[in-house]
Design brief:
By secondary structure, the protein is of the alpha/beta class. It has one domain: P-loop containing nucleotide triphosphate hydrolases (Rossmann fold, 3-Layer(aba) Sandwich). Helix content is 34%, strand content 26%. The protein contains 8 helices and 11 strands. Helix 2 runs parallel beside helix 4.
């Protein structure tokens, strides 16, 4: 059984059909990259998977549980469906009024407070959360920045904080929406190194990216999207090196910014 099954997801805004029936599956430990020109539906698909947008039609199954479905014409999202998906945004979305450490701890603390024994075990729980945050900061090379505020960090450092924050809730799948698009070229490499390390650790990931050569080297599967549809899906060698569809061929050929990593 696949970790994630996406079946016929459709999404429209008014009369504009953004996703026209997207289906794919993802196994545990796999990395899927989604490529394509702007306006093809990549980010909308990622937002639907995280329920930041609610699809109009279709079905999403995560870990064997139906977390989204349409019944009697009514889109339904299962309780706590978002827990399974972690999201890292283009623009970092860190809370500017909080330190790096507090950015990592905010959501886990709120989640911990829902536990019936939180009051009795508060100190123990918080101690474990702090230790976990420190471990993630060390893994992303940010231990010395834990008391800094976002405005004191470079874009690359902020994005690494955002990655660590997403990992704090232990999502089944970690999603990235163009994780390097807001960065200067010299800062892009440090973020891509963290993502490559996560792959080596066996993290299941979905990455919307314009970095074709990075996608080729880090992915198990690649989806090429255009006009709200999956035009081509396969291994990196199939989609990037030997694309079959004319739209994929034109996109790969036109991408002159591809760089080896």
């Amino acid at each position: 059984m696949s970790l994630l099954e996406v079946n016929n997801i459709k999404k429209s805004f008014g009369k504009a059909d953004i996703l026209k029936g997207v289906s794919f599956s993802l196994d545990e430990g796999e990395v899927l990259s989604i490529i394509g020109s702007s306006g093809g539906g990549k980010t909308t698909l990622l937002r639907c998977l995280n329920f930041l947008e609610i699809p109009n039609e279709g079905e999403i199954v995560l870990n064997g549980k139906k977390v989204f479905y349409v019944e009697n014409g009514i889109p339904t999202v299962a309780k706590d469906a978002q827990k399974g998906m972690g999201m890292v945004f283009q623009q970092f979305n860190l809370f500017p009024q909080y330190s790096v450490m507090d950015n990592l701890l905010l959501a886990p603390k709120l989640e911990a407070k829902k536990s019936p024994d939180y009051k009795q075990k508060k100190k123990e729980i918080l101690k474990k959360l702090v230790a976990k945050a420190e471990s993630l900061l060390a893994a992303t090379g940010l231990s010395e920045k834990k008391d800094f505020y976002p405005c004191m960090l470079s874009g690359g450092q902020q994005q690494r904080v955002a990655i660590a924050r997403a990992l704090m809730l232990e999502p089944d799948i970690l999603c990235f929406d163009e994780p390097t698009s807001a960065l200067d070229p010299e800062l892009t490499g440090e973020v891509l190194k963290v993502i490559k390390k996560l792959r080596e650790e066996g993290r299941t990931m979905i990455i919307v990216t314009h970095e074709l050569m990075f996608a080729k080297h880090v992915s198990d599967k690649i989806i090429f999207m255009a006009d709200g549809n999956i035009c081509e899906m396969g291994t990196p060698e199939e989609v990037i090196d030997h694309p079959k569809e004319a739209k994929t061929q034109a996109f790969i050929k036109s991408d002159l910014s591809a760089t080896e990593y």
